[in-house]
Every structure is written in C-alpha cells, then in structure tokens.
Design goal:
The structure is a single chain. Helices cover about 30% and strands about 25% of the residues. It has 7 helices and 9 strands; from the N terminus they run H-H-E-E-H-E-H-E-H-E-E-H-E-E-E-H. It has helices at about 5-15, 25-30, 65-70, 90-100, 110-120, 160, 210-219, and strands at about 50-55, 60, 80-85, 100-105, 125-130, 145-150, 165-175, 180-190, 190-200. The strands form 2 sheets. A 7-stranded mixed β-sheet has the order 5-4-3-6-7-8-9. Strands 1-2 form a two-stranded antiparallel ribbon. The chain starts with a helix and ends with a helix. The structure holds S-adenosyl-L-homocysteine (SAH). S-adenosyl-L-homocysteine (SAH) binds near residues 105, 135, 150, 151 and 206.
C-alpha cells in the first residue's frame, strides 16, 4: 500500500469516528483526489485532516468540515446544489460526486481557472461555474434544494434564503469575528425558515461585491 493510500484510509476512519456516517459522503471523500486540489508545496499534507493555504490568501477547507457540511445538506443523486466560494474546487468536486448537479460561484477568476482545470482532469461534467459575487446567489438557476457557503458571512445573505426551494437546506458559517464562527443550517419549511446551529468553525470571510471594485479601492 502506498504512503498516500495509508494516510487516506486513516483520514476516512477519523471522519467516521468524528460522526460522519453517510456512506455516500465518506465514499466521495475517498474518491476525490485531494492531492490535485492542494498547492504543490503542501502535497505531503494532502491527506491530513487540516485546512491548507491556497492562492489569493484563501484556504482549502479541512476534510472533516467538508464532510460535515456535505452531510448536513442531506444530498441525494437527484439534488441540485449551489456552492458559494469555489476556492480550490475541492468541496465542489465532493458535492459533484454526491449530488446530481452543482453550481459554484467564485469571485477570483484565477482561482476559478485552476479549479476548472481540476474538474476537467477528474472528468466531472455535472459542475457549472460562474465568476461573480456569491452574496447574490444564482437567481437564474433557483430554486435550489441545497446551498452551501464556504466562507464566513457577517449575516445571512437574504438572496440565498430566497433561492432555497421548499424543504431546501442552506449551510453557512455566520459571524463577524475572524476567529470563530457558527456553522448554521437554515431550512425552508411550509411555516417559514428554521435555524439550527451546528458547529463552531473558522473560515475566511465572504466578501461582498465583485473583485473589480476591490481593486479600484486599493488603487
Ligand atoms: N470551498 C473551497 C474553500 C474556499 S475558501 C475549497 O474547497 O477549497 C472561500 C472562497 O470563497 C475563497 O476562494 C474566496 O475567494 C471566495 N469568496 C469570498 N467571498 C466571495 C463572494 N462574495 N462570492 C464568491 N466567492 C467568494
């Protein structure tokens, strides 16, 4: 058995012990080659259960958090899911293995170009990408049965709640502090939106607006 293979098995066992019981989620983490999503400098840590730095000062999430959020979305092979914050593309690739169709939005076009090359390398064809501001969601494709935000929002974007279909789930880290945020699941029911806190997490911020406006501010 290769070194990587042994590390992978250890990681999957750790996820199981940590409460990831959905076998489709565990199977997806086993099959998505995390080594193609990390920076070459961190290749030796690709199968460790930790977040790692990627380009543009962003991070690829910790496998446990990817698995936990994916499980919390209750996906089936018929679900249409929206992700905000493509980053390395790793979470999107995991979603693509579990759901029917994945829509993913990233504000940095360089990150998206790299992620798209990885999706092509994996031969994933059920992923749709968009460069833009995820605060606004993807109204043309709404409603979604599941929405996942992989950056911390100071408050829940109303547009994302609006784009949830009946029975739909939104999983999002919420909080103003950069140290710790609360992972929250919102569900749209016949009686309105139900909110459930899930876990303390730490994510890079969800930045409102397009990249262009930020460049202008810096100049
Ligand atoms: N899901 C990613 C984690 C990415 S980190 C992975 O598996 O690697 C969060 C990402 O959210 C960053 O790439 C950041 O650029 C992006 N982001 C932050 N604010 C955003 C916004 N308003 N719209 C779209 N993407 C945003």
């Amino acid at each position: 058995m290769s070194h990587d293979e042994a590390r992978k098995i250890r990681l999957i066992m750790g996820l199981r012990r940590g409460g990831i019981t959905d076998s489709r989620v565990l199977g997806a983490l086993e099959r998505v080659p995390r080594e193609i999503f990390v920076d070459p400098a961190f290749l030796d840590q690709a199968w460790e259960d930790r977040a790692l730095p990627i380009a543009q000062g962003q991070t690829i999430s910790q496998p446990f958090v990817v698995a936990f959020m994916t499980q919390a979305l209750h996906l089936t092979d018929r679900t249409k899911v929206l992700e905000i914050g493509t980053g390395s593309g790793y979470q999107a690739a995991v979603l693509a293995k579990v759901a029917r169709r994945v829509y993913t939005i990233e504000r940095h076009k360089e990150l998206m170009a790299t992620a798209e090359a990885r999706f092509a390398k994996m031969g994933l064809h059920n992923l749709h990408t968009r460069i833009g501001d995820g605060w606004r969601g993807w109204p043309e494709q709404a409603p979604f049965e599941a929405i996942i935000v992989t950056a911390a929002a100071s408050e829940v974007p109303q547009a994302l709640l609006d784009q949830l279909g009946e029975g739909g789930r939104l999983v999002i880290p919420v909080g103003r502090s950069s140290d710790v945020q609360k992972l929250v699941r919102y569900r749209r029911t016949a009686d309105g939106i139900v909110e459930e806190p899930l876990l303390d997490v730490r994510f890079v911020p969800l930045v409102p607006g397009e990249v262009k406006s930020e460049a202008r501010r810096k100049a």
